[in-house]
């Protein structure tokens, strides 16, 4: 598939949007790579750095020429943006997003997106724990899982466009699933992990001396405690039923281990650890 | 400090003992580097690979010539080993261990170690999630924290020997602390992290498909779920009071977030995440 007759526009040049820009410039080579951001300085910088062809503060100035639009702004802002600029989009364009929870964005846009615009809900499982264009990094997509939750309105050929783009920028898994499965599994494999990391770090025992007593395991487990509070508060609340279910299931495991410690039930502890050893061993490339 | 007139003996050539052997051979260059193991094949292999000078199945054959002995076997076996071979050690030798919890080993050996042997309780916060000599890797010590919990019997000059050895093999932090502080902080910064990793993995939602829905955060948080059940069951039980305290504090944070989700208390969630963001940001080198 050839992108060199396509104009791609990224809305929001933060860490994620910036990473898309760098990766798309290198691996996709579209006719033009545009960006929209409210921060003019970032647009100027990205232009000077050669990351984008041109930046626009006013979306109306460029949406009409954009074949593919990638929305890299907060999910709530995506909905606002789409509503406000619905008439500015080019007929036949593909719009995709990166929201980590899919239900709201899909529900809110249902019925209000023009028939000649194909909005494809996307979720690249890629990122780092930082914010802003300066932390953009094409490597975040390397080997990532890129999920799509297609709607009935999506055209097959457009899904293939986004899937091709995802693979070209580095995703090793590109996978279509339904919104329920997506939001359920994300509550487990992503949101719960962030809840845990924050809960570890917000301890009375955490201090500037913690590096004295910690090895790689602590660092790994708390890396994502460096969380974006605005983004994740919204995402947690949006998916609260699923997340509460995951917190309950996890807490019941923790409680099981605690009870076994109180009872000094070595067999139960051993069995529990053996189980996690066996499960995670299946997914581990020991010599990597 | 010069080690080239010293014989160093490693007891137990597993992942940790093997890593010591490789690092000591490269960075310490002792007169001889010996190893004791119950598995003759490992000793032969390590000898052929040039990692050790010579291996011994019978500790009595080599302890009498060993100036420094590093015990890399299970903590309970260290105690047994020391009792059984007390008369075999060389007069004036330094013995150190790597147990992750220090109270039992120090208490059990108190009063039974010969006056002319200096047992220095050590804990290199270094390792990987694998087992056995084949996973030995000198890099595990790179930049690690190496803790000592000296007793009143330890001679200052011998503490300096072990501290020098620790720095030479790669530790960036070499730190003396007391047993209580050590075991308390280890319950938080290491044992709790392993309890959490296992509790994440032992979920009904964990399956072979999990990589579809997970990014780096899940992988980081569950890396250590690939846990050695024998070693960690013992370590958890040995430190159970401290670990239970940590589980309680952590669970109460998780519960706080869960309650806030139920109440849709966005301010509380945001404040909680902001706090963990601020705390962990202090320890993060963003451009690393």
Please give a structural write-up.
2 copies of one chain form a homodimer. In chain A, the strands form 2 sheets. Chain A has a 6-stranded parallel beta sheet. In chain A, strands 7-8-9 form a 3-stranded mixed beta sheet, covered by helices on one side. With 288 residues, the first copy, chain A, is an alpha/beta fold. Chain A has 2 domains: 7-177, Rossmann fold, CATH 3.40.50; 181-281, 6-phosphogluconate dehydrogenase C-terminal like domain (6-phosphogluconate dehydrogenase C-terminal fold), CATH 1.10.3660.10. The relative contact order of chain A is 0.10. Chain A contains 11 helices and 9 strands. Chains A and B meet through helix 6, helix 7, helix 8, helix 9 and helix 10 of A and helix 6, helix 7, helix 8, helix 9 and helix 10 of B. Chains A, B: Pathway: Amino-acid biosynthesis. Chains A, B: Residues 6-288 form the Prephenate/arogenate dehydrogenase domain. Chains A, B: Keywords: Oxidoreductase. Chains A, B: It comes from Dethiosulfatibacter aminovorans DSM 17477. Chains A, B: GO terms for molecular function: NAD+ binding; prephenate dehydrogenase (NAD+) activity; prephenate dehydrogenase (NADP+) activity.
Task: Itemize the secondary structure elements and their pairings.
2 copies of one chain form a homodimer.
Chain A: E1 7-11, H1 15-27, E2 32-36, H2 40-48, E3 54-56, E4 68-71, H3 75-85, E5 94-97, H4 103-109, E6 118-120, E7 122-124, E8 145-148, H5 156-169, E9 173-176, H6 179-201, H7 210-213, H8 216-222, H9 229-238, H10 240-262, H11 266-281
Parallel strand pairs in A: 1-2, 1-4, 2-3, 4-5, 5-6, 8-9
Antiparallel strand pairs in A: 7-8
Helix pairs in contact in A: 6-10
Organism (chains A, B): Dethiosulfatibacter aminovorans DSM 17477
GO molecular function (chains A, B): NAD+ binding; prephenate dehydrogenase (NAD+) activity; prephenate dehydrogenase (NADP+) activity
Family (chains A, B): Belongs to the prephenate/arogenate dehydrogenase family.
